[in-house]
Amino acid sequence: MDHIDPGWFAFWPAAISRHASDVDLMLAGLVALCVALTAPVFVLMVWFAHKYRSGVDVDRSGGPKRNLRLETAWAAIPFVLVLFFYVWAARAYWDLHEPPADALEISVIAKQWMWKFQHPGGQREINELHVPLGRAVKLSMTSQDVIHSLFFPSLRIKQDVLPERVSYEWFEADQPGVHHLFCAEFCGTSHSKMRGRIVVLEPEAYADWLAANEADLTLARRGAALFRSYGCSGCHMNSDVVRAPPLYGVYGRPVPLASGGFVTADEQYVRDSILMPLDKVVAGYRPIMPSFAGRIAEEDLVQLVAYVKSLATADDYRLPDTP
Ligand code: CUA
User: Fold this and answer.
1) Cis-peptide into 115, omega within 30 deg
2) For ligand 1, what atom is nearest to the CA of residue 191?
3) CA-192 nearest atom, ligand 1
4) C-alpha to C-alpha distance for 268 and 84, rounded to whole angstroms
5) Counting atoms of ligand 1 from 1, which one is nearest the CA of 113?
6) Which of the two ends of the chain, N or C, has the fewest CB atoms closer than 10 A to its terminal CB?
7) Is residue 185 in contact with ligand 1, taking CB distance under 6 Å?
8) Any ligand 1 atom below 6 A from CB of 187
9) Judging by DSSP bridges, how do beta strands 128-132 and 195-201 pair with one another?
10) Nearest atom (ligand 1) to Cα of 149
11) What is the whole-number distance in angstroms between the Cα of residue 190 and the centre of ligand 1?
12) In a 10 Å sphere around its CB, with 0-12 CB exposed, 13-18 middle and 19+ buried, how is residue 45 labelled?
């Protein structure tokens, strides 16, 4: 199972999702259309150059005449045909930006020069990503240093991974197998070695893999422990001291800001609030939170965000018991 299937042609890897097949069809269609639009021009050019070459006795009377219908047709028909591809591609593009709500979320941290993946259950892996077949998987990605780009040739998706930002990509693989993953952004000396494998497993095999690699704590629970050790709980969880906004139920909702307006409490906002707390202060609170920029490891940050996220659906405020 650890053999990477190169597909029928190494430069055209197997397509293992509906999106990938769609991209292939689109590319083939676009190539066919370009050929159909360009070939007549070249064929006529060659033919006329031959037919009317100098020294040949042919009828050269009847100079240029305008044919408005013909001219309109050869502008309008290709325009409509090309527009069809625009609509098709735009739909595929939007699709890529709207992961299904029930997608399995896996965190990705890129660093020179490796890919770290963390599953919601706390399972961690490096340069290897195990995912279940037939289930939408959403990668929420950030970089610890420079700009990287996570590229899955057989899924036909690629997305930049940036420091201090959270970016996403999602897919739903429909074939089991092992395929390449690459960094597709030149990120330093060992950029070319920043590659790995995606292993698509049948749902039962994925469950077995999760069980075999069971972590002592889930991502959110690790975050909860950090929430105490970094001292966040002192202000955010202590109902006697109303110094900081409570975090229960905040994730995914609009938060009113002191500067007016609202911001949606997504991964980016929670992250920014830890690193740049004075940037978007919640209405009704004073800007007193110290910044944790440079004091908190990227991995810890991902876990803290996972914890805040888990509070969106928590029944109450209490910190879960952590060993
Ligand atoms: Cu990371 Cu190239």
Assistant:
1) no
2) 2
3) 2
4) 35
5) 1
6) C
7) yes
8) yes
9) parallel
10) 1
11) 8
12) exposed
Task: State pTM to two decimals.
Answer: 0.74
Fold of 219-313: Cytochrome Bc1 Complex; Chain D, domain 2 (1.10.760)
Cβ–ligand 1 distance for 148 under 6 Å, the answer yes
**φ/ψ of residue 14, rounded to 5:** -55, 150
Domain boundaries of the chain, sorted by first residue: 1-49+70-215, 219-313
Output the tens digit of pLDDT for each of the chain's 323 residues: 456 766 666 778 889 999 999 999 999 999 999 999 899 999 999 999 999 998 888 888 877 788 899 999 989 998 999 999 999 999 999 988 888 989 999 999 999 999 999 998 888 899 999 999 999 999 999 998 999 999 999 999 999 999 888 899 999 999 999 999 999 999 999 999 999 999 999 999 999 998 888 777 788 888 888 888 887 877 777 666 667 777 877 888 888 888 888 888 888 888 888 888 888 888 888 888 888 888 888 888 888 888 888 887 765 444 444 43
Contact 120, 130 (CB under 8 A): no
Residues 230 and 216 sit within 8 Å (Cβ to Cβ): no
8: Cα separation from own chain's centroid: 27
158 lines ligand 1 (CB under 6 A): no
1-49+70-215: CATH topology is Immunoglobulin-like (2.60.40)
